[in-house]
Design a protein that fits this description.
Length: 403
């Protein structure tokens, strides 16, 4: 279908964000931007100075593109860190004003919402340009780095959520929490994350090569790909399943990535003599990821945020790898039990272990559910689906508040 049919009146979009553009953040930014461009929309990006979401990462773990000053700022005590975030409005405001002065033909601003950030809303309203906020964080939810100036963050958030032309949330439960805290917020839609099928398509040769390299031939492989950090709980999952592996010799775990919990987990696996059944690849190059995903028969997501939409869930499904995931509401919004995946009670890792062991014994079900998961992503949850929903939403809200 021609781009003109899909994007009526939209020719140019400014994507503004304050992230370092790394890891999952970069995946999301590139997913939205590339999909808009594929529909014939010109997209400019204003990033945090020194951050480029299109810098080619050398490994699938977080990139090393961050400038030294970024690392310095993130290590500041929380009060000082938040004061720097507030002060950044001066930088962002100046850059946005300059851009909008030189580009009066922008149809709307799409901004990845950040705490304490009001410069985008102010610049858009001054120019009479619609601004849609993509909300991935909020003062209303639990954060790994707790807020110090929470009341200030809430006050700014309440204002920008009200003044935005529209809001995009990754889950219904997240939208509902925000609405409970900010009853007068702008119109909102729910758009879960996504994955492009063409980036998660592999050949039999890739599968065979990866399985041979890691000694996986003849085994059922349960995989994990992502950061080894406490809140993803992959280390705790391995501790729970360790005693069950000997009685299930057909099953191997292929765990891809690194992070804070990786060294201790690697030591645990070695101390228990599990290296033949628990394969820890460490950090790998992006070109190796398709083959590693291809080597998997199923995937485990031990934990996730109770309001987030895990990108890895969609990437596993796009690859035809059926996931076993916690039954948080955002996951229940996209996963159909025994059709596109399986769920266990959130925070019950013993149940997660039971599910993995049970599913690993039914290879026919793994193939059936994996194929259905891939078909679901193909039809409903590619990045193009997301931006078509976004453009339709823009058409509905673009005249809000006179924009």
């Amino acid at each position: 279908m021609p781009a003109d049919h899909q994007t009526p009146g939209v020719r140019k979009v400014l994507y503004h964000h304050r992230t370092q553009g790394k890891a999952v953040e970069g995946v999301h930014i590139r997913g939205i931007t590339d999909a808009l461009r594929a529909e014939g929309v010109h997209v400019d990006i204003i990033s945090l100075p020194g951050a480029d979401p299109y810098s080619s990462p050398k490994a699938m773990s977080p990139t090393k593109q961050a400038k030294p000053w970024m690392s310095f700022v993130t290590k500041l005590p929380e009060p000082l860190f938040e004061l720097v975030e507030i002060a950044y409005n001066l930088v962002a405001g100046s850059r946005l004003r300059t851009y909008l002065r030189d580009n009066p033909d922008v149809d709307f601003i799409y901004e990845r919402y950040s705490l304490f950030m009001w410069a985008g809303i102010r610049a858009a309203r001054r120019r009479g340009i619609p601004i849609i906020l993509e909300v991935n964080d909020s003062a209303t939810v639990y954060r790994v780095r707790p807020l110090f100036f929470r009341r200030i963050a809430m006050a700014i958030e309440r204002s920008v959520f009200r003044k935005a032309s529209g809001l995009v949330f990754v889950s219904g439960v997240f939208r509902d929490r925000a609405r409970a805290a900010h009853p007068d917020m702008a119109p909102a839609i729910v758009t879960p994350n996504a994955a492009n099928i063409d980036k998660f398509t592999f050949t039999q040769a890739q599968r065979d090569e990866a399985r041979a390299r890691y000694g996986l031939e003849g085994s059922v492989v349960c995989g994990y790909l992502g950061a080894f950090v406490p809140w993803h709980a992959i280390d705790r999952f391995v501790h729970r399943i360790a005693d069950r592996l000997a009685e299930n010799p057909h099953l191997k775990l292929l765990l891809v990535g690194d992070g804070a919990t990786f060294p201790a987990l690697k030591a645990f696996v070695a101390s228990r003599g599990l290296s033949e059944q628990v394969i820890l690849t460490g950090r790998v190059g992006h070109d190796a990821v398709p083959g590693l995903l291809a080597a998997m028969d199923m995937a485990i997501l031990p934990s996730a945020g109770d309001y987030t939409s895990p990108v890895k869930l969609f990437e596993f499904m796009a690859c035809g790898v059926p996931p076993v995931a916690p039954d948080f509401e955002p996951i229940k919004e996209v996963l159909v039990e025994d059709r596109t995946g399986w769920m266990f009670r959130a925070d019950d890792l013993d149940e997660a272990v039971r599910q993995v062991l049970e599913r690993s014994r039914d290879t026919a079900a793994l193939s059936r559910v994996g194929a259905a998961a891939r078909a679901y992503v193909t039809e409903h949850r590619q990045w193009r689906n997301n931006i078509l929903e976004l453009l339709e939403f823009h058409a509905r809200v673009r005249h809000r508040d006179g924009a």
